[in-house]
Amino acid sequence: MAEDPQTAAGSIPGLQRLATVRAKAKLAELSAAHNPEYIRQMAVSALGELGDPAYCSLMLDIARESGDYSRFIALRAAGYLCGQDALPLLTAPLAEADASPRFEAAYALGNSHSREAVPMLISLLLDADANVRRAAKESLITLTHRHLKTYDWPARETHDDWANWWTSNGATAAIYRIDECDESEAVQ
C-alpha cells in the first residue's frame, strides 16, 4: 500500500501504529524529497511522534534542506528527537523576518528538553508577533512546568516575570520533556 502513490498517504497511520523497525524505515523513505509534499509531511510527523532518536539526523537534514512546510514539521520533530543537539538548527529561524519560522522554532525549542532553550524562549516573549509570543510561553511551560497566575499579561510583564524567575531558579529548575507534561501542575 505504501508503494502506490495513490494509497501511500493512507498507509502512514498504519505504519505509525506498527512502529516496527521496518515501518519506521518506510516512514523515513516516505519523508524523502522525491515524494509529494503532503506525503512527506505526514511521514515526517509520524516518524517524529514515534520518538526514536535514531531518526534525529534525518529530521535535521529535512529541516535544513526543505523549503516547504515539511521543514517546520521536521524542526519540531528534531527538537523532540535530537534534544540539545538540535539547538544550532533551531536558533537559525529565530532571526528570520517572517514570523512563521520563529513560531515553529519556538515550539521546537519547547520540544528540546534543553535548559539552554529557556533563555532563547524568554527573549521570544518580546517578539513583535503575538503568535510567536504565545508559542514561546507554551514552550516555557512545557520545559519548566511553571505556569503564570496571569497568562495574558502584556509582553513586557510576561518577559520580565520569566526573566526574573529564570535568574533566581534557572540553575536548579527541573527541565521536562514534552512527554512528561502534567496538566495538574500547580500555578506558581
How would you concisely characterize the structure shown here?
The protein is built from ten helices and no strands. With 188 residues, it is an all-alpha fold. It has a domain at 51-180: Leucine-rich Repeat Variant (Alpha Horseshoe).
Q: Poorly predicted ranges (pLDDT <50, ≥5 residues)?
A: 184-188
CATH class of the domain at 51-180: Mainly Alpha
Rg over CA atoms: 18 Å
Q: Quote the CATH topology of the domain at 51-180.
A: Leucine-rich Repeat Variant
Indicate the proportion of strand residues. under 5%
Distance between the termini: 50 Å
CATH homologous group name of the domain at 51-180? Leucine-rich Repeat Variant
Number of strands: 0
What's the overall geometry? elongated
CATH architecture of the domain at 51-180: Alpha Horseshoe
The residue fraction in helices comes out at 55-70%
Secondary-structure blueprint of this entry?
Elements: H1 8-18, H2 21-30, H3 37-50, H4 56-65, H5 70-82, H6 87-91, H7 99-111, H8 117-124, H9 130-144, H10 155-169
Structure description:
The protein is mostly helical. The protein has a domain at 51-180: Leucine-rich Repeat Variant, CATH 1.25.10. It is 61% helix and 0% strand. It contains 10 helices and no strands. It has helices at 8-18, 21-30, 37-50, 56-65, 70-82, 87-91, 99-111, 117-124, 130-144, 155-169. Helix 1 runs parallel beside helix 3, helix 5 runs parallel beside helix 7 (99-111) and helix 7 (99-111) packs parallel to helix 9 (130-144). It is elongated.
Could you name the key traits of this structure?
188 residues, Leucine-rich Repeat Variant, 10 helices, elongated
